[in-house]
Design brief:
Shape: globular
CATH architecture of the largest domain: Orthogonal Bundle
Structural class: alpha+beta
Oligomer: single chain
Radius of gyration: 24 Å
Mean pLDDT: 79
CATH class of the largest domain: Mainly Alpha
CATH superfamily of the largest domain: ACP-like
Length: about 120
């Protein structure tokens, strides 16, 4: 199983600021350290996960398993929006996971579905 890691981080020190209030007294703010980081691991699906996903999609759409290639788009397999929802529900049930709606809406290919499932199971 291959994994792709994207890590980014940034940090900065906020400058010292001096403010004046309405009564002309100086208000001093000390420098502050501000940090921002993000971390995301994209796990490529295992062969077993991909095979299970292909099988479920084949069964849901009533198509031959050989037609359900990893790079096949759901729409090219004849899936409409209702079919896609049913596929996602079947995948959630089979793998005992919950796919968030936003992420599930971005899935367009069999491989993307398998990768997202692998990521959920990690």
């Amino acid at each position: 199983m291959a994994a792709i890691m994207n890590i980014s981080a940034s940090a900065r020190v906020a400058p010292k600021v001096q403010l004046r209030s309405a009564s002309s007294k100086a208000l001093k703010a000390k420098p502050a350290f501000v940090a921002k980081a993000s971390f995301r691991v994209n796990a490529a699906a295992s062969d077993d996960t991909l095979t299970k996903v292909r099988t479920i999609i084949s069964e849901q759409l009533g198509t031959d398993l050989d037609a359900v290639a990893a790079d096949a788009k759901f729409v090219d397999l004849g899936a409409d929006s209702l079919d896609t929802v049913e596929i996602m529900m079947a995948l959630e049930e089979q793998f005992e996971i919950t796919l968030d709606e936003e992420g599930a809406e971005k899935i367009a290919t069999v491989q993307e579905a398998a990768d997202m499932i692998q990521e959920q199971m990690a």
